[in-house]
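Contributing new complexes? Match this layout with flavin mononucleotide.
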Amino acid sequence: MTSRYAQLAFTPAVRARQQHHGSRTAYARIEQGPARADRLGDDEVGFITARDSFYLASTGESGWPYVQHRGGPPGFLRAVDATTLAFADFRGNRQYITTGNLQGNDRVALLLMDYPQRIRLKILGTAVTDDNPGPALLRALTPADYRAVVERVVLITVEAYDWNCPQHITPRYTPQEIEDDHADLCRRLAELQRQNAALPRLNERLAELEAENTALRAAVQ
Ligand SMILES: Cc1cc2nc3c(=O)[nH]c(=O)nc-3n(C[C@H](O)[C@H](O)[C@H](O)COP(=O)(O)O)c2cc1C
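Output block (do not edit by hand):
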């Protein structure tokens, strides 16, 4: 956990619970770093741009948190620089809950999952929507060959992030990942079948050589 994440997530009530349960001393140390926004490094950027989905939480005017899934081809969530993420928001059920929420409260939480590797990355930030992005930004964020209508782009300024442990994450695989894995198995199976098919011929040859050997031994005796 970065010190910035701890500073934002450990509210007085959270700190009190940590105190009550005996984890406060260890966590208090994490908060000691500088109070400035985290910057994404190579590990974070690599992980973010490999994702084909993430969960995006916002808060409505009612005070209720709201979490929604965003998905697209890997790379649809872009790290524009060390503090900015961006994605094209596709047309969906036209409820516009996240979009509306962001008008009153720009704070967002993202949860990015890598189920096969059992890794999760949590991000806190502030988001703005842009219904009329410039053509260059729109082009950069619109996935090629993907069936979706882009309604707007969402830009997220990263404030803090936290890598989480693999606890209680069940590995899950996309059809593509299963297909890739099967393709490898199929290749290995085909190679074994080829080797298997050659075995009778090899056995025949071995028998011929043994017969020749026996004949030679008999000749030299
Ligand atoms: C035709 C259609 C129907 C959808 N129905 C639902 C739905 O019932 N529930 C849901 O959570 N998402 C649904 N989605 C996906 C959401 O519309 C999409 O995730 C959208 O970005 C949600 O934004 P919002 O939850 O911030 O309003 C649907 C998408 C389409 C294209």
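Reviewers usually confirm one structural detail per submission. For this one: The longest strand covers residues 150-164.
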